[in-house]
């Protein structure tokens, strides 16, 4: 019987993988303050601690559209080469400090062009910053690999342009694609041409679906657009009654389509009502390939360690459960098969074994 004490120290030491995390939602508060001062942008407060609290409070609206509106101030400081380099580098270092060994960061380059950079220049600059962060993390003995997902904003008209950039930069650190933004009223099939182009070019993609809109959004993302993963997908539970799976839920489970679930974020946007009752636990127990994610670390005031701790404390998760969602994430990463296997074999599984060997018993 495993009697390991699952406390924050143990959780912090575990190797982690995150597939759903937005670059513009994860800045350091102090960095936002400094860059905003340099850009002449007015913030709600210039105290980093107060700003961090403001983000979380503003995002706790229960409404996805208002949640997204909090990004005004982070995007304002990500319009220059200097701002992008710094925020991308710090993003990687913050993942490494949290024990993340593999991460996929996503952002929409069209939102970073107000300062005169082209979308292509934005991507080049972010990749440069991410590479600098990975080099520093490796030198510090906390290596982390970070791949990039480029996003198109589903409410606007540059989705195909972003998809073309994903194709162009796929040998330079971009591992996939996504569409983001307000889900309700902007169905994924509106951008079918972009997804067809990505499939022709063998570029994998995920789609935000089943967060602010229900089963039709998930069905369209999978069966019309061809997504390989689903961002959030919490409303797939509408196709599960008394533990019996409907045809769509069965399709998702049986074909091992990863669900990128983000508990704290889902509480903020009203997609879930509690950590204890979040669909991630029930769907894990039903055999879905659920993954655990942060979504927006600044906006949600969270980290992977915190997300794991909340599930342990409020939903009764064990170390085995944490291992399961980490393995699920690595298996579903937009990496070549042999690289996923090596990450599991050489990093994730030995890391869990080492943490358990050195941890106190309950």
UniProtKB/TrEMBL annotation:
* Organism domain of life: Bacteria
Chain positions recorded as Zn(2+) binding sites: 20, 22, 208, 295
Query: What are the binding positions for substrate in this chain?
Result: 22, 24, 181
Q: Which residues does the UniProt site feature Important for catalytic activity point to?
A: 232
**Major enzyme class:** hydrolase
Adenosine deaminase domain location: 15-347
Report the co-factor binding details.
Binds 1 zinc ion per subunit.
State the reactions this protein catalyses: 2'-deoxyadenosine + H2O + H(+) = 2'-deoxyinosine + NH4(+); adenosine + H2O + H(+) = inosine + NH4(+)
Per UniProt, which keywords does this protein have? Answer: Hydrolase, Metal-binding, Nucleotide metabolism, Zinc
Q: What is its EC number?
A: 3.5.4.4
Q: Which GO terms describe its molecular function?
A: 2'-deoxyadenosine deaminase activity; adenosine deaminase activity; zinc ion binding
One cellular component term from this protein's GO annotations in UniProt: cytosol
A Pfam family this protein belongs to? A_deaminase
Gene3D superfamilies referenced in this protein's UniProt entry, alphabetically: Metal-dependent hydrolases
The cofactor required is: Zn(2+)
Gene Ontology BP annotations: adenosine catabolic process; hypoxanthine salvage; inosine biosynthetic process; nucleotide metabolic process; purine ribonucleoside monophosphate biosynthetic process
Q: What family does the entry list?
A: Belongs to the metallo-dependent hydrolases superfamily. Adenosine and AMP deaminases family. Adenosine deaminase subfamily.
Task: Please state what the protein is called.
Answer: Adenosine deaminase
Specify the species.
Streptomyces toyocaensis
Q: Gene name on record?
A: add
């Amino acid at each position: 019987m495993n009697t390991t004490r699952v406390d924050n120290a143990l959780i912090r030491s575990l190797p982690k993988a995150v597939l759903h995390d937005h670059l513009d939602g994860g800045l350091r508060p102090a960095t936002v303050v400094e860059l905003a001062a340099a850009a002449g942008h007015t913030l709600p407060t210039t105290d980093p601690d107060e700003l961090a609290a403001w983000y979380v409070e503003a995002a706790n609206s229960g409404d996805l559209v208002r949640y997204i509106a909090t990004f005004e101030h982070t995007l304002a400081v990500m319009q220059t080469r200097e701002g992008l380099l710094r925020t991308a580098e710090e993003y990687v270092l913050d993942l490494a400090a949290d024990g993340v060994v593999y991460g996929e960061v996503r952002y929409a380059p069209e939102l970073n062009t107000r300062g005169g950079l082209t979308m292509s220049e934005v991507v080049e600059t972010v990749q440069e910053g991410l590479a600098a962060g990975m080099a520093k993390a490796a030198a510090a003995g906390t290596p982390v690999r970070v791949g990039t997902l480029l996003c198109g904003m589903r409410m606007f008209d540059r989705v195909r342009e972003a998809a073309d950039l994903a194709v162009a930069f796929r040998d330079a650190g971009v591992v996939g694609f996504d569409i983001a933004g307000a889900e309700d009223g902007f169905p994924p099939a509106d951008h079918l041409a972009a997804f067809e182009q990505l499939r022709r070019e063998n570029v994998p993609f995920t789609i935000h679906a089943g967060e602010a809109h229900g089963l039709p959004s998930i069905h369209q993302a999978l069966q019309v657009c061809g997504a390989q993963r689903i961002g959030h997908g919490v409303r797939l539970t509408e196709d599960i009654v008394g533990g019996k799976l409907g045809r769509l839920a069965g399709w998702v489970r049986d074909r091992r389509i990863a669900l990128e679930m983000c508990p704290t974020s889902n509480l903020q946007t009203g997609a879930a009502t509690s950590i204890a009752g979040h669909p991630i636990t029930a769907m894990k127990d039903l055999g879905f390939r659920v993954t655990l994610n942060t979504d927006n670390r600044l906006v949600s005031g969270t980290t992977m360690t915190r997300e794991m701790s909340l599930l342990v404390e409020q939903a009764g998760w064990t170390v085995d459960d944490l291992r399961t969602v980490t393995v699920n994430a690595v298996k579903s990463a937009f990496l070549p098969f042999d690289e996923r296997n090596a990450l599991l074999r050489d990093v994730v599984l030995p890391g869990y074994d080492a943490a358990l060997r050195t941890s106190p018993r309950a």
